[in-house]
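One chain is below:
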Amino acid sequence: MTVIADKCPDVKVTVVDINQARIDAWNSENLPIFEPGLDDVVKRARGRNLFFSTDIPAAIKDADIIFVSVNTPTKTFGHGAGKASDLQYWEKTARNILEIADEGKIIVEKSTLPVRTAAAMERILNSNDKGLHFEVLSNPEFLAEGTAIKDLFEPDRVLIGSHQTESGLAACQKLVDVYAHWVPRDRILTTNLWSSELTKLTANAFLAQRISSINSISALCEKTGADVDEVAFVMGKDTRIGPKFLKASIGFGGSCFKKDILNLVYLCGYYGLPEVAAYWESVVKINEWQTHRVVDRMLETMFNTIAGKKIAVFGFAFKANTGDTRESPANLVVRDLLNEHAMPVVTDPKAIPDAKRDLKDVLDQVTFEEDPYKAAEGAHAVVVCTEWKCFAELDWKRIYSSMAKPAFVFDGRNILDAEALRKIGFEVSSIGKGKAE
């Protein structure tokens, strides 16, 4: 919404939320989320044509187009628990719009939703006795945290799904016209409503699949003496495969991949496709297995016990350049360390507040330290869980001198110069790199 306001000065954009503290933060100098470049965009547009408010009724009445961007987490209860999307907030929003609106609106699905959810929204909105007609569009987001502003300024594609009716296509064109302020027309793709909804789920599933695939090969590389980076590099030169999302690591995280894959699994089961459901569920299982392997390798390397040993966990955000910790592999790593009675110390340049929230049930067993040098003092091992550039730029000689010996480094993101660390004296384990027995 901030980028739309920035690029479309003739369009009034109002972001509303029921959380007053969050809206206050958006109206302050300390935005509630960290994203490179976001501050500058907000400052350019805020107060001109970008507004943040808790006055939801006024915003609904004033709007021609309403983007519904509420959370759709995985259900934790009832039918479909653990896989299906929890749509209660989405439905409440639809009913709220219906109650307040005094004229027809274009409603845009921005949340990631199951296929054919738009049909349910239409049934709710168009069941009114006011004689109002609502047109629902699907406009899924494909940006990545850490590069979101760049992704929005120069998108690979913008996808808009609509009914292929006269009113549906007219509504679609209005949204196309908004994006056309800065996005080349050949990058604005239009489809039917159901294709758009399904594309979001499958795009994330395919990206996650590539990560799980290369991570499964990383384990084989460690056993055979192959180098996963070399394998991935050569594979990536094949134009049929390409180089992206072939970076081996401790596993993917974030709010989208796991949730969207499990949603896809649920849909496949619902439509009687158990084999397809099992295939996609295996992507999630491989990812979790890969994360658990980190502590397994610690045990193998550190004399079959890490009980009572201090382990410095470098990074808790699910990826660099964000403070987001949702589904972060570091969460699993810390809990695996605690299961082995180790003493984890977590350091991260942006994510410590969220890390404390995620680990609130074991908060008395985990130490948090903003300074990575202090986090490593007296530690038996360092495990890198987030690919922050600042970790690679640390003075590792200083870190080595302060650690217990032998000093171990487990590079879960393959961002460190392993040979340089070995020359210092570290024993280093990287993902997908090992000596054949």
Notes: The chain has 18 helices and 13 strands. The longest strand covers residues 158-162. The radius of gyration is 24 Å. The chain has a mean pLDDT of 94.
